[in-house]
UniProtKB/TrEMBL annotation, chains A, B:
Signal peptide stretch: 1-28
Similarity comment: Belongs to the 'GDXG' lipolytic enzyme family.
One Pfam family from the record: Abhydrolase_3
Superkingdom field: Bacteria
Ranges where the Alpha/beta hydrolase fold-3 domain occurs: 135-336
UniProt key word Signal: yes
Keyword Transmembrane helix: no
Protein name per the record: Alpha/beta hydrolase fold-3 domain-containing protein
Record keywords: Hydrolase, Signal
Length: 362, 362
């Protein structure tokens, strides 16, 4: 594998490229039968210092500089431990919501949809160009965190930043309600919403587990003959619970939100799947047939542990002929665009909102 | 910075997010005056094994498994050393081109444009939907490699995969001709091409240094009153020669093409700039005013050392209101989508070609 002449990387790259191209006619169906097996893999990455980039806002630099979350690698040993973790997640967030609701100038009204608890979230002053449109929201948190109103924060940001009325679905979660409870609730809500609203005026969005659940909901809606929304916005969708993407390894310890799948995240996948094959498209919709899906905008960050989930979903949508935009935010770890204190968050929501508005009828 | 309750990453994340949101009204102009300085940075990344992902084609897995290029960190000590490196890069590639030209079923004709050497590259069988359109190509190689026909490989792929006639500009390079020689040649070529062709039928593309040069050429064309092309395709554009983006550090030793800016790449930046400020927009167009630019499609990979160059250019174009698509290819290091032996290369060129065709008039 050594080049015959000294030279920089691209020389070898080109040499390998073109040699292989010549060795493998026809070009349309390349093969590498003569290539050696990848015995050099896995590669050892050296330890190194990772500085805070100056290419982002000062506020985001502070986020990037933050240490790993305490207990990112704490895995509850039993059901009681998961329940405590779930309750703690809500207890952390709930006291902060009144101030956020005031700052965003929105209203948050508890409701139910098809018997599923939900929150009806609306700007206090509805923009004329958002009238008559509704976004259904599925929240993140690894399918286990943020029960109740704590899960609706992203929808509050969408209402506050992008001006849309949102219905945030408080779906059931493990440890008490593993798969398919969340999907059952999401599809029940979607069935009821589409019975009440013209689907051409509906959108569907959510990040992390909410983004994966969104895609799984569309797979099942299609199978059950329910109409799709006019557009979707999966944010860094956790659409591969088996963790087969590259960034789960390449961005491990680079992402300072999730840090590594060896922490609570991998355990949450198993908890939610409850023994089912993690590669099942309803658990990992990146393995599903995404043809016929509505226009989509996907969002991730360069340090995101789920960058590969996002870009694989994007490519899979494009391969299926779906209109699909991608934005990848500089220096951001998993779902950091949900942080309303960084200017990049408002920018991301503006981009998502403009995309959705382009495809939602009025 | 420790959370008061045990819990996974997102709890802390949400807590910080919402606390800061409340502390910083008005929300439209967040400040973090009370936040501590990022004293924890830089973060130490532990050494670790990076496996080859199974989420890409078998051919790409072989590329990802390859070791770092020999001499990626060899920096020529003097002008003679750079000249030798430059000559070696062409000598490596040139013997491979006849086979590639045959496999792609294209013609490659040496020509000149405004006195600048160039290559006129065309499919032997021109698709009807590509008639009357021309793409101008600026090649990569760190502004120092691939003089002569060796630089035209990407244009050959564009002609072969996407069916466009291309004019690949063999611009002058250091060590004998540093900045602004390359830009002078590119703008001279562009001036001549736009005098001969309706710019609504013209595109401009190139990767790595070619992508950066492309953006710089548009900045200067606008300043000189020359028309822009109808669409552009900067592939992983080297648009920040100062290396201020995050992926230059985050993907160091992850990218197995460029490996690290501490190798020849950083030295090539200094060689090209020849003492000028590396942040000058004509050297680093990510710092330029990109408003009024034509529709753009940008391409990178999740392991790309220049992922941040790409996504920062994408965001900067979007902020300027420019139509800009982004594709990020799973597991790929710098410019690996130029490897014609991986199925992902053809897919990337198809995507780029379809985008350009959408905006180029017929």
């Amino acid at each position: 594998m050594q080049p015959p002449l000294p030279g920089p990387a691209m020389i070898l790259h080109r040499r390998v490229v073109l040699s292989a191209a010549l060795a493998a006619p026809p070009l349309a169906a390349p093969t590498l039968a003569q290539a050696p097996a990848p015995t050099e893999a896995p590669r050892t990455l050296p330890a190194r210092l990772l500085p805070v980039p100056r290419s982002v806002s000062a506020e985001l630099q502070h986020r990037i500089a933050a240490p790993y979350p305490a207990n990112w690698d704490h895995i509850p040993p039993d059901t009681a431990g998961w329940r405590a973790l779930q309750a703690a997640s809500a207890a952390e967030v709930d006291p902060l919501l009144p101030g956020l609701i005031e700052a965003l100038r929105i209203t948050v009204t508890p409701t139910t949809i098809a018997g599923v608890p939900a929150f009806d979230i609306a700007p206090r002053d509805m923009r004329p160009d958002r009238q008559g449109r509704l976004l259904v929201h599925l929240h993140g948190g690894g399918y286990v965190l943020y029960p109740g109103r704590a899960g609706a924060g992203e929808a509050m940001l969408m209402a506050g930043f992008a001006g849309f009325r949102c219905l945030s679905v408080d779906y059931r979660m493990p440890p008490d309600h593993p798969f398919p409870a969340a999907l059952d609730d999401a599809i029940a809500a979607w069935r009821a919403v589409t019975a009440q609203h013209d689907p051409r005026r509906l959108g569907l969005f959510g990040s992390s587990a909410g983004g994966g659940l969104l895609l799984a909901t569309l797979l099942r809606a299609r199978a059950e003959g329910l109409p799709p929304p006019a557009a979707i916005a999966p944010g860094t969708p956790w659409c591969d619970l088996a963790g087969e993407g590259d960034s789960v390894n390449a961005n491990a310890y680079v992402d300072n939100v999730l840090v590594s799948r060896t922490g609570w995240l991998g355990a949450a996948a198993a908890l939610y799947a409850a023994g089912r094959d993690l590669r099942d498209p309803l658990l990992s919709p990146v393995n599903g047939d995404l043809s016929g899906f509505p226009p989509a905008i996907l969002t991730s960050g360069t340090r995101d542990l789920l960058l590969s989930d996002t870009v694989r979903a994007h490519r899979r949508l494009r391969r299926a002929g779906v209109v699909a935009d991608l934005q990848v935010l500089e220096g951001q770890s998993h779902a950091q665009f949900l942080d309303p204190t960084v200017p990049e968050a408002r920018e991301a929501f503006n981009e998502i909102g403009d995309f959705l508005a382009r495809y939602l009828g009025t």
